[in-house]
Design goal:
CATH architecture of the largest domain: 2-Layer Sandwich
Number of strands: 7
CATH class of the largest domain: Alpha Beta
Structural class: alpha+beta
CATH superfamily of the largest domain: Histidine kinase-like ATPase, C-terminal domain
Number of domains: 3
Number of helices: 7
Length: about 300
């Protein structure tokens, strides 16, 4: 009987000790969680009690903390990127805005119809540049959303390509450029979003018009099971083009010719192409800069 009593006392002491240890560990976890709630920290929950149940609980809490940390880091990166693009756009927008004010004053003060017409045309051009910059910002913010999806359906790439390319007729004429356009007669159907493809082609042509040197080649061909859009132009040898950075945000090979551009055109093009399951690449030779865009054909 005495032995049983002693064993019972020992068990009771062990149970009380374990209960105290559990309470201390839970209290420690609560204190650590309270600290993490009030402070931005990379600290993980630690344990003093070597118990399988407590260890499992702490592992689950730390898993959630790691996930929250990753989400916080991703948000901070996106927030920093957005602030950076706003800073860049603010700088780029300042130039056309400043000139707008000047041309408005000239328009008001001028009595010559010809001069008024010329000033009005310049103002329209500046407003168009501002509109394009804001559209780039809008598209950029959409592409930064991981949940942003493009509705894609089977489309005839030949029609999209022709309609978009020939809409630049006046732009080519104004620059006195006669592009070499090669479009296959074979119907090429791909899974894509029409507006996104148009935007990509527009950005490619605008890039060629702004940075190209007279010779521009534009093509749509079939290679195996792929439809390939080709954009090729000669370039100023003074431009230091880095094909590894060409699709980065704000990349501009020649800052002096980028006064009315935010440096997002090719970045946006790559984002849209990727969203549609395509691929985009750039290459450079001694004579030409080329961008190829690939889409799988719907067979």
């Amino acid at each position: 009987m005495v032995i049983v009593t002693i064993l019972a006392v020992i068990v009771a002491f062990i149970s009380i000790a374990m209960l105290i240890s559990y309470k201390r560990q839970i209290k420690s976890i609560c204190h650590q969680m309270a600290f993490l709630t009030k402070n931005s920290s990379n600290m993980m929950i630690t344990q003093n009690l070597h118990d399988a149940g407590i260890m499992a609980l702490i592992n689950q809490i730390n898993t959630l903390l790691e996930k929250e940390k990753s989400q916080r880091t991703a948000y901070q990166i996106k927030d920093a990127n957005l602030k950076e693009i706003i800073t860049h756009l603010s700088h780029d927008i300042r130039t056309p805005l400043t000139s707008l004010d000047g041309y408005f004053q000239l328009l008001i003060e001028s009595d010559e119809p010809t001069e008024k017409e010329r000033y009005a045309a310049v103002i329209q051009g500046r407003i168009r540049s501002l509109k394009e910059m804001l559209e780039e910002l809008f598209t950029y913010t959409k592409l930064q959303n991981d949940h942003y999806r493009l509705d894609v359906v089977p489309q005839n790439m030949n029609k999209i390509f022709c309609d978009t390319v020939f809409s630049f007729y006046d732009d080519f004429k104004q620059k006195n450029i006669e592009p070499d356009i090669q479009i296959t007669d074979e119907p090429l159907n791909v899974i894509c979003n029409v507006e996104a493809v148009k935007r990509v082609i527009q950005n490619m042509i605008k890039n060629g018009l702004q940075y190209g040197e007279q010779h521009i080649e534009i093509g749509l061909v079939r290679v195996g099971n792929k439809a390939i859009l080709k954009f090729k132009n000669s370039y100023n040898k003074g431009d230091h083009i880095d094909v590894d950075q060409i699709f980065d945000r704000f990349y501009k090979a020649d800052q002096s010719r980028s006064q009315n551009a935010a440096g997002l055109g090719l970045f946006i093009a790559k984002g849209l192409v990727t969203k549609m399951g395509g691929a985009i690449s750039a290459s450079l030779t001694d004579e030409f800069f080329e961008i190829d865009i690939e889409f799988l054909l719907e067979l």
